[in-house]
Amino acid sequence: MLSLVDGAFRLHNTHAPPDRTTTAIPGGNVRHDSPMAPNTGVDAAPSTSRDPSLLTPQYVYNGLSLPTTELLSLIPPYEAASLLVDTYFDRAHWFMLIFQQDDFRQRWPKLYQRHPGRPAEYSNAAFLSTFLVVIAIGIHYVGPYRRSLLTRHGVDSSLKDRILSCVRAKLLDVMSLGSLEAAQSCVLLGTYYLYHGSPRLAWPVCGCGLRIAQALHLHRRLRPSGSPDFRQQYETRKRCWWAIYEIETFSAVVYGYPHSIWDADCDVEPLDPSAKLQVMQCSRIPDDLQAPKTTLLYYKRLMSELSVVTKAALGELYRTKPSLVEDGKPIKSRRDLQDTLQAVAKYNSRLQQWQAKLPLELQWDRTSDQANYSTPEEIDRDIGATGPRFESHIYQLQAMTLMLAYENAMILTHRPLLSYKLHSSTDSETLRAGSDQADQPKPNPFVSSFEACRTAALRMSSIQSSPILKLVAETYAVTFVSIHTFTAGVTLGILCSMDPLNQQSSASKLALQNVMEIQETLKSRSVVAEQGLDILQRLTKLVMQKELDVLLGKNKRTTTLSNSPSRPSVQALPDELQVVSGNVTSQVSTTEGVATLDRGAPSALPSPDDILYTNDPAMTDALHDFDQALLSYAPQPCGEQEETAENPILWPPTLDGFPILEQTWLWDLDHDPLFHGDLGT
């Protein structure tokens, strides 16, 4: 807006008053010399922070803002801070990579410098807030040895709670600065809540970071400038943006929260794994190694790319915009099933293309059976670790998280097809192609999706036997691992419940046991693992009871895979899904509640002229079993309640102590595509 004002003054051959007060006008009173706003040829207004001198007088005390003064009162002794910063970079930085390590290590000691004239770092409330959250995370993840060192410096675990309480109370003051550090502070604080059992609090805090980032145009590409610091500053901006993008996607996938980023509005480039700081080499964990070797930052680029694919799949396969609305209920388009078949094939292919790009160091199958440290205690004593041994250890942790995220995305992609069954009009046991391949059975796409979900869950459960599991339990990724393996456990429980006596049910139940052992291992460090273990135990009891009822003839067996007794192998999955990726031009008609698809393209499903798709009752029964496990776990309201802050249907975190309940949205009956009879009318 102020650019229009300047233009208006230029029409009269003069300049707008330089000393004008414009704090309430968009774009007013910003600095153009911020270190995070290089001269890039882009309007600097949205990419700078507000001048601290504009703070109103009532917020100033002894030359410092009151928020800054209160935050400064919490910084620990220098020696303790150094230990906790090392702990953060040992335990959390490899997973977040939200800022440049070298830059942060150079800046934080300046907070302890007492010079007249208020050094920039000393008065920067946003960076101070970021630093304190780093300290709090470090306190949370210190082991016994480091805790004893902190005790010598007069620091105990209560400092973490005091820091989090103060930063949370001063968050609005920090956000009002609108700086890159303010966005980083929101992301760090939000992820702490996200990974420590408070997703309802985490999501709006991270959302504030998103809004600050968008105001700073972090989602936009910058034109190169002649500044020698441009590359470093641009990469710092990109790190913050892609960290926010990942958190938004993670929250949408895990908790079913709506995604707040519009990809069409973003043109920022991916992270550059070979980017280097234009400053001295770091003596700790380098953010990247010499090209063309795999770098520690390459993990972040891969996770960002996976988030883009996952977000697209989430939007297309679980879209919330119905074609029609009748009696307040969405009615899906009659083309939805055909579109879903093609979309599943498309995203299955994109995910496999992503996996094919993994470097050797980040391939879980190559690193799962070895560990560079024998015990968590050994890592605890290796303060400020560096060198090939520690770098290899970090690669192993990153390989595990990438594998879990990939397999979780596979389950997300194939879940919509698990609710369907396919029947040929001739009731043949296998589906066959045209006359030229009449003797070759063709796969059932719904069976393929069943196997894809099962294979993904089995692979996630396999980390139970890896020596790396106990090491990841001491890192910031412990809840990430707990959440994804919980998804694997729920998937295995539901698939077992669909057909308790099938040939593969035994292997699935053993894998479910492995998942529960994983949760048992992690529960001391993650409330999600503790709650997930309880729910999985309840679900397992229901699965075993159902199997017993089927054996005793008390319950009718439903065989969801009867159409294809020869189950497809994992290796054949891409070819199997290829048959549903053809151009389908026919319409869907319904007969007695069962949808009949006439395939017009020979490259579509290999089938007779008429193929019947119907709801799979085995899936509906399995979802009911899972719902019963949740009902027996979830806290129940006592009597009628008014709509107050104590009512769990409202936003306040009455149930935030039970974050695991929100992670089950993927298997909620309300989200089942056929539970409400949406398959055409």
From TrEMBL:
InterPro entries: AtrR-like (IPR050987), XnlR_reg_dom (IPR007219). Residues 202-276 form the Xylanolytic transcriptional activator regulatory domain. The keyword Transmembrane helix applies. The chain crosses the membrane at residues 122-143. Residues 13-50 are annotated as: Disordered. GO terms for molecular function: DNA binding; DNA-binding transcription factor activity; zinc ion binding. This is Xylanolytic transcriptional activator regulatory domain-containing protein. It comes from the Eukaryota.
